[in-house]
From TrEMBL:
NCBIfam families: GGDEF
Name used for this protein in its record: GGDEF domain-containing protein
Every GGDEF domain range: 231-365
Keywords: Membrane, Transmembrane, Transmembrane helix
CDD domains per the UniProt record, alphabetical: GGDEF
PROSITE patterns membership: GGDEF (PS50887)
Transmembrane among keywords: yes
Gene Ontology MF terms: diguanylate cyclase activity
Amino acid sequence: MALLAGSLVLSYNAREIERSATNLERILSASMTGYRPLHDLQRDLQRAAVNQGLESALVVDARGVVLVASNNALVNLPLPHVLQLTGEQPLRALFTDCPSKDGVVSCLNQDRRVFVGPLPWLGGDFLVTMRQSPLALEGQGGGFGDRATLITVVNLDAQRNEALTFVLLVFIAGTLPLIFGSLGLLLMLRRHLLPQLLNMAQIDALSGIFNRRTFMETAREVLAKARQVGVPCSMALIDVDHFKAINDNNGHEVGDQVIRHVSKFLAEAGRSTDLVGRLGGDEFIILLQNPRDRAVQMLDRTRQQLQVSPLRKHDGGVVEVELSVGVASTAGASGFDLELLMAAADAALYVAKDRGRHQVVCLEMEDTQ
């Protein structure tokens, strides 16, 4: 009886997952046809990965090149290269029928949905989908009839564990009311509470950007994949100058407004592949997939733009906001080690403050002069 109940629950769970995947595909496909900048679509994929339980999502153009992805390290890589990367095994299930690894591009012109795992008809470990969609983005071709392929991977571990837990409850209790009550609770948790808890766990409540834990976890993955494909990266630690004085002179409510102002500015000033997080207090962190000279130029430009974009208070007054920035890169002694990069950027930030604040310092560039 427990086996039968488990099969029914898992089958129902699989159908629910398929319906959710279809709705998510429609939402993301709409983002691909909105004539918006490419970085807006990049942010939509990243938000979906955070809020919709996606393992990964990517958009591949007709050439087989990744245009955007929830994982920044995959952007601009050929699809055959992506399929060979460690950790991308679920994607390969979509292309098992292709004649060769070089023929995967020819297999993009189809819609597919595959459950990957030991019991795929009951849900499996992953749900991998491929959906064709028109492509109409600012600066991306723009020709009538342009199309791209949206690929999504949903990790089903949590859903499967929930279903197995439910089966155990059925076996122990053996009552119909408990069956319906538990099923209703599981559906409510999955549809409403769990997405909210996931968002709360990953996003800093005040600033709206990644919190420290999520930034560290994501940055570690990005650096590992950047090392594999040889993409240079730079790390920046950023402090708001004289933040204590801003709080003392204007109150903590204005201080919170400054944090939100800086967070929004940093998130919008960088590229879609940049990771932006708040470490705590008035300290921010950015991981840029850029060499150090371009990273320093971008950060210095951002610092100057923020200076001429003061925070406007509710009473009509303004608060001028200045930043001190320390930069370190993977070209230095730290390599792709996250903790060493942060330590090197922190040392550069200390020098920026010691020199009078409101500047960008990269000690590696000074050592080479």
